[in-house]
Amino acid sequence: MFLARAEIRRSRGKFLMLTAAVGLLAFLILVQQAIAGALVTSFNGAIKNQTAPVLVYATDALRSPQGSIITPDWEELIADDPSVAATSRIGILATTAEIADDGAGVASSGEATVTIWGAEDAALGGPAEPVEGRAVESSGEAVATRGDLALGDTVTLSGEEEDLTFTVVGLVQDAQVNVTPTVYVSFEDFEAAQGVLNPFARGVLPSMIGVEPAESAEETVAALLEASPAIEPLTREAAADEFPGVGPVNTSFLIILGLFGFVVPLVTGLFFLILTFQKSKALTLLRAVGGRASVLGRSLLIQVVLVLGIGLAVGAALYWVTTLFEIGGLRLEFSWASVGLWAGLLLVLGVLSALASVRRVLAIEPVEATKGGH
């Protein structure tokens, strides 16, 4: 430990620069992972955080809720299946609406693309419990995604013959669809919205059916798959994971994180390898005066652990500060699990990459000091 501290004090600038580099790389890894999670949630948050254990799509929709239409025959088939305890119609509609800010400064007044989500039963396909305000209790009320709208904001749909206005009475977290502000209303209000936007429509069909399983969600999914090839039932988790667009986002960020995870130990290992080359004369002299190779190798490993440990702590602190702000409209979440995972992984990989330097120290022969070896 004494040798490790002495070497760090003697080359303070080098070690500070390496620690800063490790900290910045760790910060980038953690923030990239947080951005990936936030981006995925902005795609499928509404699916992940809605209340129905099973969602049934039309097969032709390819698991896209906005492209799915459930006909009355399919709806009856689902409701009559013995594995189904209860059903709820769910309608989804993307449209342009006029948003009026209540003055809280969260939403900007003007036109914006929003998604209207209507559920026949809020306990079976509706949003999660609001984090602010309350749930919808009457016609004309809505729950909206937090960060996009504020309590008291109004969302107005303009039609050829009449307008329809919803007032935001509650806010839910992480419940967007396709990276758009999402407004949750009753199914009756969803039908009214369809009527305003298309006054010539005759009947409004649901986009999906929310299902309460009689037994387990997996058994209900298997039973409905056998009932008809025209419908595709998915558990809540599967529907979120297989939401269109989620796979490519996850793959892209996985590649980026993998590259970052490769760079950190590589930089650390190369730094200490170069350092051992630079101080080869001093190491040879220490061996010649009786310094044991194991002591020198242990000193090097202590330096590696200190640099990586402090650097990772700095990166985690910067990551925590970053999660206090929104980035490009995305709200990042601090995750101790991510910090622990990457800290452990990078520490192990960093130590392994530094073993080349340790092996070189262990291979030093004291007799080289009599030859002026390098």
The helix/strand series, from N terminus to C terminus, equals HHEHEEEEEEEHEHEHHHHEEHH
Order of strands in the sheet with most strands? 2-3-8-5-7-6
**Percent helix range:** 40-55%
User: Looking at the structure, what is the overall shape?
Assistant: elongated
Strand content: 15-25%
Number of helices: 11
Low-confidence stretches: none
Mean pLDDT: 84
Described by its quaternary structure, the protein is single chain
Radius of gyration: 29 Å
First CA to last CA: what distance? Answer: 25 Å
Q: Major sheet: size, sense and barrel closure?
A: 6 strands, mixed, barrel
Q: Could you say which structural class the secondary elements and strand pairing correspond to?
A: alpha+beta
Strand count: 12
Would you write up a description of this structure?
The protein is of the alpha+beta class. The chain contains eleven helices and twelve strands. The protein has helices at residues 2-10, 12-48, 72-80, 187-197, 217-227, 236-241, 246-278, 280-288, 293-322, 336-353, 355-362, and strands at residues 54-58, 84-100, 110-119, 132-133, 141-145, 154-158, 163-172, 182-186, 208-213, 231-235, 326-327, 330-331. The strands form two sheets. Strands 2-3-8-5-7-6 form a six-stranded mixed beta barrel. A two-stranded antiparallel sheet has the order 11-12. Helix 1 (2-10) crosses helix 9, helix 2 (12-48) packs across helix 9 and helix 2 (12-48) crosses helix 10 (336-353). The longest helix has 37 residues, at 12-48. It is elongated, with a radius of gyration of 29 Å. The mean pLDDT is 84.
